[in-house]
Amino acid sequence: MDFAGIGTDFSRRAVMASHLEWVKQIARVQVENGGLMGLSRLLMQKIEKTVVVTSDQGHVLSRHIWDNQPVVIQERLSLPQSVAASTEMTRGISTFGGHKCAYYCWPIVNQKKEGYLWILTEKENLSAEEMENAEYLRSALLVEIVKKQEQLKLKQYLRDGSILNLLFNNSDQLETMGQVWGRNLLITHIVMILEGQTKVPDHGLTEVRTKAENFLEAKYPGTVTGMIGKHLVVLFPYEKKTREKDGQTNDNWKNIPRQAYSELQEILDDVKLWASVGSIYPDQPLLYRSYQEAKVALEMGKVLGKKEKLTFFNELGAIRLFYNQRKQDLRDFFEETLGPVLKYDRTNDGNLLLTLWHYYASGGDISAATKGMFIHANTLRYRLRKVEELTASSLDDQEVRFNIYAALKVGLMLGIFEV
């Protein structure tokens, strides 16, 4: 009798039984909707080591630290080059929250990388059985990640549709819609529009909207958000506060979007953010007007090249009146006012227009203007006299000063010159 063969067969059966039991445990967690947290906890308990699941960008989706292992898992893991470049399991040594330890990392792949499964250990290597346990779990994690993505897409689709209907007054059931989303849609709202550009070409706020929305909803309860095109639209609930004695307004509503913009730019540190805010209107149907104003302010803020990338519509002044004018009319106005100056700059490779802009931007302060352009005060005065000569007008005339400033704004808006 081949006792060796019997032993081998018995061992094989034992391994298969162990694998089957592991698969059953995984399935049980999924049936009970344990999700990524339940699955990663199951693996941690099985192999008695720290288990982390991240997105393809390293954002932590689930973490379970074994037996007080001295490691701190940040919200985002820095992906080693070997991990980012590989479609197979990689291993190495890295620092996690200031603690150096060995890691094993499996990419969770569908048609593309959807995330990573990490196992962190102190010194010992993983056994063959532990490696197999991780491999089995990886498929289950893929299912959960894809499911989570689909749920998020559906939620965002419904949210985007709701905010579109809200802004364009397409819904006569605001109270019911608000109850579904847990929001009071009948009160006054501040309308803010956000546009972003990441370091990755052609990537904007769509790729980071979840992080932005989660932050806004947590920090500003009652906020309504949604994407319209490439813009993230944010509606902040607003209640006007008054002084108890004289009944007058005692708060600055602009502080809400200013603070939110500042905080968002801080947490989205790899995104260049532009933002704009429309005027406040007490009636919900006028949200559409505020939204349109915010759109104008966003474009004007970008065109005018403001250092502060948050623009309020009611701070644009007279320049907002130009936005809906025909471009040809605006060009004619610029030519009539500053055409000779533009021609001189182009013919002589000059910078009279830029000098004018710095002069006006500094409020007519010669000292401040020269510092901004790094030129001598006499040089600035010479250039201003040249402008007066070319335009046959005096910069001391208030009407002339107004027209020139307006023409400069128009020139920036049309891209005739840049600052």
TrEMBL record:
InterPro entries: CdaR-like_regulators, CdaR_GGDEF, PucR_C-HTH_dom, PucR_C-HTH_sf
Upper classification of the organism: Bacteria, Bacillati, Bacillota, Clostridia, Eubacteriales
Listed PANTHER family: CARBOHYDRATE DIACID REGULATOR, DNA-BINDING TRANSCRIPTIONAL ACTIVATOR ADER
Family statement: Belongs to the CdaR family.
Residues of the PucR C-terminal helix-turn-helix domain: 352-410
Boundaries of every CdaR GGDEF-like domain copy: 171-300
Record's protein name: Transcriptional regulator, CdaR
